[in-house]
Write a structure and sequence with these properties.
The complex is a heterodimer. By secondary structure, chain A is of the alpha/beta class. In chain A, 35% of the residues lie in helices and 14% in strands. In chain A, strands 3-4-5-6-7-8-9-10 form an 8-stranded parallel β-barrel, surrounded by 6 helices. A two-stranded antiparallel sheet of chain A has the order 1-2. Bound molecules: iron/sulfur cluster.
Chain lengths: 329, 474
């Protein structure tokens, strides 16, 4: 049975295709991370996150600045996942050595997660953690992101995290670090410390557009402007609820582009930690390609900063990004 | 259908008799379900049967039509549906027809190696939150250019697999040899181009099959071809805007994005067809096979996120395919409903009064992982699924969707108190922070389980069976 009505057509039609270009009112704020000597810090360069004017990879509408890629290092890994020892070897036992290794692979910034300060785990003292940070700043000249307890829920964790971030802000005044997380429940002390000492904040909310905006409002009431904040709405990785994060990022980005200034801080996408704690663990999995696939999905949903674990993922993501044109923002 | 469609608009075209034949209480609730695509319009008998509603029926059909046409690729009783999308962004509604993935075989392969590969394609399957992740299609490619070789390859594939087929050649004679082997089926024909379109139209009409329209990196020509083919009487089209890795990656992503956006934001209905991507093209470049596989994987991944409705892929390694199948499943999950299982008490094996009692979240992935780990450990246990609104344990604890009070309620409602003689509750390692509060709220003694459920077996043998805690009673 033929489809529809059959006509005799001998020549190709020629049509035009008007580009479906949307123009946006909002621009994503630019957050500068890392201060060089001349800027009062000790970093060898600084890097800028944000500045997007349209959705990612909609290059026919405009060119966004290139996303920033971070490699991450943990001061304590509970049980290193399969493949991690093979990838990094013993250095993962020593964060300073680990940072030296990671440094060689040219990440734009390094994310050090000092998770062992949690009173519920290793209970590392804040003083001890400051010593570690001191060594870390010596070990690399790259801009740094310093994170504490990523999901501070219990009062002990919340106060320890706050104490840690406050101290870090004070001890490393002028380095223009990205520190966090701060949450709706606990942000005031760290916000003040960051402001006084010239740092940026990682503002974490759970997959919720309105909560992310609310936290930015609270922070801005404290005097922290959107160009001092990187927003984190990540929860879950590929195979682990990533779709909610992706849609949240896309919605937040659209809100910002449509002109909601409080939605206009750049967004970070954490992939790796979730990749390797993923409850999905089929044997054929290659964790770095898995991480790359997740990172790509995050970038396509609007991530301005992607924090990666595997060096291969960094390499792969960077090489695919190099195929696209980028603007200055 | 525009996503702004309101149930009221739909309601106005329904019979408004509230007769209840659709199984709904009234026409308005049927209208709501129609707008949510939960029911088909044919479920309202009066609308379909009575002449006076005929006009409204057609109006409604039109109103509810997806902006991206749904195209069926069929073989025997199997159908792969592609397209049928209503929105540009996932959060505006939901994506509906998961990107179909085709793996290629070519007509220069020996019959034995075709059979091998086809078996591999068919048997690839990963269990994931209660479903099986699988590949969808086999793409038979002509590389010899010889109709007889193509015919033979198609025969071998048909004889060794039941999957629907994509037939690939730019030579109409070659395609005809393949098409004539599969009467009654609707393989997807790849492809009509500016050079061969008039012969391709004849084939597609004669065999009544969906046809791919291909204009690599030339959306204007693509659109012109679509217009021409529609005028010829074809309806089931699939668009191939070209797909390249490396230096072509940029154009590829731009074309996919632009074409889909043109439909949803510039009302360009000529482009309202499923999009086909062929990451297999990365194999045209030289270099190590390993690099090609990486590249094919992330290119396919980008296209799954960015609007592709069907993909042709060459790599068949689990480490390339698995991330793609999971990503696809995630992206095509309905964002309106969390992937969850019903909260309540689940028995694993045949638990008795001294069996361990654990709880977990109602996020489907967590539940299936935990329950399969308990099964693998070959123990009998009670598993209480707490309503965490579909979040994993970690996220639920962080987001306050899992609290001591919720656990206490779940324990109470489960009736577990009457099923076991002990009062020990094993909680997920990722909820360890709540252990004190849970003890207080439930009055049960808490044992903090492992962070990773794969260690449940070890945990239980050391802490439960080793210590025989239940013998202490309450
Ligand atoms: S069957 Fe049709 S007319 Fe009857 S209640 Fe349902 S929608 Fe209304």
């Amino acid at each position: 049975m033929p489809q529809g009505q059959v006509n005799l057509i001998r020549r190709l039609f020629t049509l035009s295709l008007p580009l479906p270009i949307e123009s946006y009112r909002g621009v994503i704020a630019k957050v500068k991370i890392g201060a060089t000597k001349s800027e009062g810090g000790s970093r060898s360069y600084s890097t800028t996150v944000g500045g997007a004017r349209t959705l990612p990879f909609y290059t026919f509408e405009g060119l966004n600045p290139p996303p920033v890629l971070a490699l991450e290092v943990y001061d304590h890994l509970v049980s290193p996942p399969v493949g991690v020892m093979e990838a990094f070897g013993d250095v993962i036992m020593d964060p300073v050595e680990w940072i030296r290794v990671v440094d060689r692979f040219n990440p734009d910034i390094i994310n050090l997660n000092v998770r062992s300060i949690s009173p519920l785990t290793l209970n590392r003292s804040v003083k001890d953690a400051m010593h570690l940070l001191e060594e870390v700043l010596q070990a690399t000249g790259r801009p740094l992101m310093i994170t504490g307890i990523m999901d501070p829920i219990h009062t002990e964790d919340i106060s320890r995290n706050t104490e840690f971030l406050k101290q870090a802000a004070e001890c490393f005044k002028g380095e223009r670090l990205l520190i966090g997380p701060v949450t709706v429940e606990a942000y005031e002390t760290v916000a003040e410390a960051a402001l006084t000492n010239g740092h940026n904040l990682l503002a974490k909310s759970n997959m919720d557009v309105n909560q992310a905006i609310r936290l930015n409002e609270l922070l801005s009431a404290k005097g922290v402007s959107t160009d001092r904040i990187v927003v984190d709405v990540t929860t879950g990785a590929l195979g682990y609820g990533i779709e909610y994060t992706l849609s949240t990022m896309e919605r937040l980005r659209l809100r910002a582009l449509q002109g909601d200034r409080m939605a206009g801080s750049p967004m970070i996408f954490f992939v790796s930690e979730n990749v390797f704690i993923s409850e999905f663990r089929e044997p054929p999995l290659n964790l770095s390609i898995y991480e790359t696939a997740a990172a790509v999905a995050g970038l396509m949903s609007g991530a301005d900063l992607v924090s990666l674990f595997y060096v291969e993922s960094l390499h792969m993501v960077r090489s695919l990004l190099s195929e696209f044109p980028w603007g200055g923002g | 259908m525009a996503r702004s469609l309101s149930p009221l608009e739909v309601y106005n075209l329904l019979p408004k008799t509230n007769c209840g034949k659709c199984g709904e209480a009234n026409c308005l609730s049927f209208a709501t379900r129609l707008v949510n695509l939960e029911v088909e319009i044919e479920k309202c008998p009066p609308l379909v049967e009575e002449v006076k509603y005929r006009e409204n029926y057609f109006k409604l059909k039109d109103l509810l039509k997806p902006l991206i046409r749904e195209v069926l690729i069929t073989r025997g009783g199997k159908a792969v549906r592609i397209g049928g999308e209503y929105v540009l962004y996932r959060h505006e509604f939901t994506y509906r027809r998961p990107t179909a993935i085709a793996i290629d075989v070519s007509d220069n392969m020996t019959p034995e190696s075709i059979i091998d590969r086809v078996k591999q394609i068919e048997s690839l399957s990963y269990p994931y939150i209660g479903k099986e992740l699988k590949l969808d299609l086999i793409a038979v490619r002509s590389v010899t250019g010889d109709p007889e070789s193509f015919r033979k390859a198609v025969r071998v594939v048909l004889g060794s697999s039941s999957l629907p087929i994509v037939l690939c050649s730019l030579n109409p004679d070659v395609l005809k040899a393949g098409l004539s082997e599969m009467p009654g089926d609707k393989p997807l024909i790849y492809a009509a181009t500016v050079d061969n379109w008039s012969q391709m139209v004849e084939l597609a009409l004669a065999y009544d099959c969906p046809l791919v329209v291909s204009a690599p990196n030339n959306p204007v020509t693509l659109k012109s071809l679509v217009k021409t083919l529609l005028e010829c009487g074809l309806e089931d089209l699939v668009l191939d805007p070209g797909c390249m890795g490396g230096e072509g990656l940029y154009d590829t992503i731009v074309n996919f994005t632009m074409l889909r956006k043109a439909v949803f934001r510039a009302n360009d209905s000529l482009l309202g067809f499923p999009l086909l991507g062929a990451p297999i093209s990365v194999w045209l470049e030289n270099g190590r096979a390993l690099d090609r596989k990486w590249e094919e994987c992330y290119l396919a991944g980008m296209l799954i996120v960015r609007f592709a409705d069907v993909l042709i892929i060459h790599s068949l390694d689990g480490w390339v395919i698995l991330p793609l199948l999971i990503l696809r499943d995630n992206i095509y999950t309905d964002p309106r409903k969390p992937v969850s299982v019903k909260p309540g008490l689940y028995k694993i094996g045949t638990p008795n009064e001294s069996s361990p009692v654990m709880f977990t979240s109602n996020f489907a992935l967590t539940y299936y992982t935990v329950s399969s780990d308990i099964q693998a450990a070959k123990v009998d246990a009670y598993l209480i699924v707490v309503d965490t609104e579909g979040l994993s344990v970690t996220s639920a604890v962080a987001g306050r969707k899992l609290t001591a009070d919720k656990v206490a309620d779940a324990v109470k409602e489960s009736g577990i108190e009457n099923l076991v003689k002990h009062r020990y509750l094993i909680i997920p390692g990722r909820a360890s922070k709540l252990s004190g509060e849970i003890e207080e709220a439930t009055n049960w003694k808490v044992l903090v389980g492992p962070l990773d459920s794969s260690e449940i077996s070890k945990f239980l043998s050391e802490n439960w069976y080793g210590k025989k805690l239940w013998e202490a009673g309450r």
